[in-house]
């Protein structure tokens, strides 16, 4: 690259939005050129730096994403599924790399990203951290090595404000376990247990979600058979790990051919 890529952040006022902005400002490899919020938000029309309680940055928060995307080489998007689909279309029009950390997307919504990926780079992942992506690879390998005598359970914990469950990371780990076993996750997933459920079905992959306090993110993959257990675990204590991963993805995507990618591609795993 002969220039410093400009990056626009959607959901600028949120916890991840502000963390992303700080990560970009701390980097000498990128510059902040846009900040987007939903219509009617109190930050609209303000300098994003002063809205965050700091000095002015020369970037005004807007509710017009195309305006923010026009001068950007990358968009980093941790918002909601419906908004992400809109942003994908606009990012493709701008030929900007679209880094998607949005969770809770349905299979139909993920499939709806394909037209945009024909024109621009999309990097989508349930989790942007290096550690979680290594955990995903380990989960796949362990699941492939063990037969279904070992039950697989995925337990995740997040802060009280998280709106989707299981988390995108938990589902990513479930997909890895299912792929290791050579099965389809949707056919073996147990995503909620309540009441008289009967005995656990052999070969199923279970999910449990905890929501409490300010937990950033904890994920356990449990492989349990009679007489022994294997536990793979990742604990995030700072959202900065996700922001750094997203920024790395935005930079990695510069100059890549249009298409759909994930963090394994970014990290070369």
Give a quick summary of the entry:
By secondary structure, this protein is an alpha/beta fold. It is built from eleven helices and twelve strands.
* Shape designation: elongated
Distance between the termini: 23 Å
Mean pLDDT: 96
Low-confidence stretches: none
Biggest sheet features: 7 strands, parallel
Major beta sheet, strand line-up: 3-2-1-4-5-6-12
Q: How many beta-strand runs?
A: 12
CATH architecture name of the largest domain: 3-Layer(aba) Sandwich
Order of helices and strands: EHEHEHEHEHHEHEHHEEEEHEH
Q: Bin the helical content.
A: 25-40%
Structural class: alpha/beta
Determine the strand fraction and express it as a percent band.
15-25%
Total separate domains: 2
* CATH topology tier name of the largest domain: Rossmann fold
Report Rg: 19 Å
* CATH C-level class of the largest domain: Alpha Beta
Total helical elements: 11
**Could you give me the name of the CATH homologous superfamily of the largest domain?**
NAD(P)-binding Rossmann-like Domain
What is the element layout, followed by pairings?
Layout: E1 6-10, H1 15-26, E2 31-36, H2 48-51, E3 61-62, H3 65-69, E4 74-77, H4 81-93, E5 97-100, H5 107-111, H6 114-117, E6 121-124, H7 130-145, E7 151-158, H8 168-181, H9 185-188, E8 189-190, E9 205-211, E10 217-225, E11 228-236, H10 240-252, E12 259-261, H11 263-267
Parallel strand pairs: 1-2, 1-4, 2-3, 4-5, 5-6, 6-12, 7-9, 8-9
Antiparallel strand pairs: 7-10, 10-11
Helix pairs in contact: 1-10, 7-8
């Amino acid at each position: 690259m002969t220039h410093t890529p400009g990056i626009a952040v959607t959901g600028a006022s949120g916890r991840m939005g502000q963390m992303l902005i700080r990560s970009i400002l701390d980097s000498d490899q990128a510059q902040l050129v846009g900040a987007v919020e939903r219509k009617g938000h109190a930050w609209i029309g303000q300098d994003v730096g002063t809205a965050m309680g700091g000095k002015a940055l020369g970037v005004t928060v807007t509710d017009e994403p195309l305006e923010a995307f026009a001068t950007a080489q990358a968009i980093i998007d941790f918002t909601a599924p419906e908004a992400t689909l809109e942003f994908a279309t606009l990012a493709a029009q701008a030929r900007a790399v679209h880094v998607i950390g949005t969770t809770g997307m349905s299979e139909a919504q993920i499939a709806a990203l394909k037209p945009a990926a024909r024109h621009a780079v999309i990097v989508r992942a349930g989790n942007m951290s290096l550690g979680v992506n290594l955990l995903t690879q380990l989960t796949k390998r362990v699941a492939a090595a063990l037969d279904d005598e070992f039950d697989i359970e995925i337990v995740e914990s997040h802060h009280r404000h998280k709106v989707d469950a299981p988390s995108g990371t938990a589902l990513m780990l479930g997909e890895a376990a299912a792929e290791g076993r050579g099965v389809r996750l949707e056919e073996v997933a147990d995503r909620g247990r309540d009441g008289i459920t009967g005995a656990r079905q052999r070969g199923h992959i279970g999910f449990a979600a905890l929501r409490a306090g300010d937990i950033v993110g904890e994920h356990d993959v449990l492989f349990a058979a009679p007489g022994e257990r294997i536990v793979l675990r990742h604990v995030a204590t700072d959202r900065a790990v996700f922001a750094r991963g997203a920024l790395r993805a935005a930079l990695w995507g510069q100059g890549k051919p249009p298409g759909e990618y994930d963090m394994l591609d970014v990290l070369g795993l």
